[in-house]
Amino acid sequence: MNLTATAGRAGRFLLDFALPPRCPACGTITAEVDLFCDGCWREVEFLGGGCATCGLPLEATGAETCGACLAEPPPLTRIRSAVAYGDTARSLVLRLKYGRKTALARTMAHYMRRPLGELTPGALLVPVPLHRRRLWGRGFNQAALVATELARTGGCQADPLLLRRTRHTPRLKGMSVSERRRAVGGAFAVRAGRAVRGRNIILVDDVYTSGSTAAACARLLKRNGAASVELLTWARVVRPTTIR
Ligand SMILES: [Zn+2]
Ligand SMILES: [Zn+2]
Fold first, then answer.
1. Are 190 and 159 a contacting pair, CB within 8 Å?
2. What percent of the chain is predicted at pLDDT more than 70?
3. Where are the domains of the chain?
């Protein structure tokens, strides 16, 4: 047995508790656990206002709903996100998903509480599910971690198992709207024994890109009698050029 390595790990473990909190984005020592330092806070683009339905920034016309939502109301009653998808927002998502920094779910949930306040009070939080193959590979569903954290700190309820992904879906990047819709159509199901009828549901996900996945979940929930389906995400692609 390598005693030095073991002692090193134990020391590291103790240090994690003894050290002051660090900014989840840049690692600078901060006053409060899980929150951005002042510099990163200024750099992150927090989202607010915008179209009453989809939340995207509005043209200065005085209208409350954007032209796209008026022309074709989306299956999601309302869409809200904490931040625009930029370098810092993306880094948190990647480190949570692939770097297994599960504590970052707390940071995301913290900043998602404000947009959550713009959605239906008392609605049930339901994370967008992963296919079990991906769940086995990663060991956790990042959206479920965030939803559970929001429920724990926000006094609302979450049901991480209400939806399940019945088949693996390809990456949607580069697909047209109709291709995306076909790719995710029928990929979700309501778990047996779960009651959806008459309920207000808030889908929770890490990033809102094209919305095809959330729309597929929303259509399914509506077919099962949900009263309303809204979407809450950590980050949102506001300008398509920020997708990488
Ligand atoms: Zn920072
Ligand atoms: Zn809109």
1. no
2. 91
3. 1-43, 44-242
Q: Which pLDDT band holds residue 12 (cuts at 50, 70, 90)? A: low
- What Å distances lie between residue 211 and 22, 31, 134, 243, CA to CA? 33, 36, 20, 14
pLDDT at 242: 46
The three-state secondary structure class of 193 is coil
- Report CA(19)–ligand 2 centroid distance (Å): 44
CA distances from 162 to 23, 201, 212 (A): 33, 10, 19
* 118 Cα to the center of ligand 2, angstroms: 15
CA 60 – ligand 2 centroid, Å: 14
Of the candidates 24, 21, 22, 66, the one whose C-alpha atom is nearest the C-alpha of residue 44 is 24
| Span 44-242 CATH architecture | 3-Layer(aba) Sandwich (3.40)
| Ligand lying closest to the C-alpha of residue 211 | 2
φ and ψ at residue 101, rounded to 5 degrees: -85, 75
Global confidence as pTM = 0.88
pLDDT of residue 171: 82
- 1 has pLDDT over 50: no
CB 190 within 8 A of CB 222: no
Alpha-carbon distance 138 to 117, whole Å?
30
- Asked if 218 and 203 touch (Cβ cutoff 8 Å), the reply is yes
Question: To which H or E segment does residue 124 belong?
Answer: strand 124-127
CA of 41 to the centre of ligand 1 (A): 7
User: Above pLDDT 90, what percent of the chain?
Assistant: 63
* Longest distance between any two alpha carbons in the chain, whole Å: 70
